[in-house]
Design goal:
- This protein is α/β, with parallel strands linked by helices.
- It has 11 helices and 14 strands.
- Helices cover about 40% and strands about 25% of the residues.
- A 9-stranded mixed sheet has the order 6-5-1-9-10-11-12-13-14.
- β13 and β14 form a beta hairpin.
- α3 packs across α10 and α7 crosses α8.
- It is globular.
Length: about 325
């Protein structure tokens, strides 16, 4: 039986365009950075580029795509509008066999999008307009999409006081009632800094699995070293997965540390999506009841594959 996973996160359309360095200078963009932009900046930028490709993106959506690539059974819920980008988003996921059960409706804000400007040196400069994506609420979640799953995967990016927090709690309560396991990614160090206390409480009280990189984990525990973090987290009796770039990865399970080396990449083209795809490899094996070492290896292999190509998709 194919084990089922549902990811819930920001639904962001990745809009890829090639530009030269002059374009970035003219627009005052810092090469390689990610900048949040407003609606008018987004519309203006869209007019000035030639769109090469449109792909369904967002951190957890990338993870679900990776699971589908590994022939796993993945679903994703994220908030989009019924506009052209929203329709492209749905089609882009369904084309790779990721179920997208979200019911599109006419919204006040457009579908969120990230314009990814690729310069000749393969650097990616991102301008992201969140649009409607960060307004995902409990009314957008159908209980039936949760109860028949083995695992729910949430992203830290979505957490904010107010409607997102209510949505998180709603999902967690349904999952717990139905013995569905709950995993979360820490997403980003700034995200952890903003919501440290909330994330720690979620880990302690609600989560079964937490995935983050070394810096995010240390930020969460307010410690300087990974060893200190692990010693602090041992008492929680959770599965904690830590990625460490070229230093590999490790998992803390049943108070034991399981280490895994990184998988060497011949040529690194683009680091986007490395963490998302690591999570895909790990969670797919975890759902197959594989040993934790094998889960880490699978994550490592997928992460090394994705950094050798442009974008966060393995075709």
């Amino acid at each position: 039986m194919n084990k089922k996973i549902l990811g819930i996160g920001n639904a962001i359309v990745d809009v890829l365009a090639k530009v030269d360095d002059e374009f970035l200078i003219k627009k005052n963009f810092i090469k390689g950075s990610m900048k949040l932009i407003n609606k008018s900046e987004f519309e203006d930028l869209k007019k000035n580029i030639k769109i090469e490709k449109v792909v369904a993106g967002g951190s957890v959506a990338n993870t679900m795509s990776g699971i589908a690539y590994l022939k796993g059974s993945a679903s994703f819920i994220g908030k989009v509008n019924s506009d052209s980008f929203g329709q492209m988003y749905k089609k882009s996921l369904e084309d790779i066999n990721v179920d997208f059960p979200y019911i599109q409706k006419k919204e006040g804000l457009p579908t969120g999008a990230s314009i990814i400007l690729i310069t000749p040196d393969s650097e990616r400069t991102m301008c992201t307009y969140l649009g409607i994506s960060s307004n995902l609420s409990e009314s957008d979640i159908d209980e039936n999409n949760i109860i028949n799953k083995e695992l729910i995967f949430l992203e830290g990016y979505l957490w904010d006081k107010g409607i997102s927090e209510k949505m998180f709690k709603y999902v967690i309560n349904i999952a717990k009632k139905n013995n569905v396991k709950i995993a979360m990614s820490l997403s980003d160090i700034f995200c952890v800094t903003r919501h440290k206390e909330d994330f720690y409480n979620l880990l302690k009280n609600d989560l079964d699995i937490l995935i983050g990189n070394e810096n995010e984990i240390n930020e969460l525990t307010n410690t300087k070293t990974l060893l200190d973090s692990i010693n602090q987290l041992k008492g929680l009796n959770k599965l904690i997965v830590v990625t460490r770039s070229e230093n590999g990865s490790l998992a803390l399970k049943d108070n034991k540390i399981i280490n895994c080396e990184s998988t060497k990449a011949d040529k690194i083209l683009d680091l986007t999506g490395a963490g998302d795809l690591f999570a895909a490899g790990f969670l797919k094996e975890y759902l197959e009841k594989s040993e934790i070492k094998k889960c880490l290896m699978s994550g490592s292999i997928l992460a090394s594959k994705i950094i050798q190509k442009i974008g966060a998709r393995l075709e």
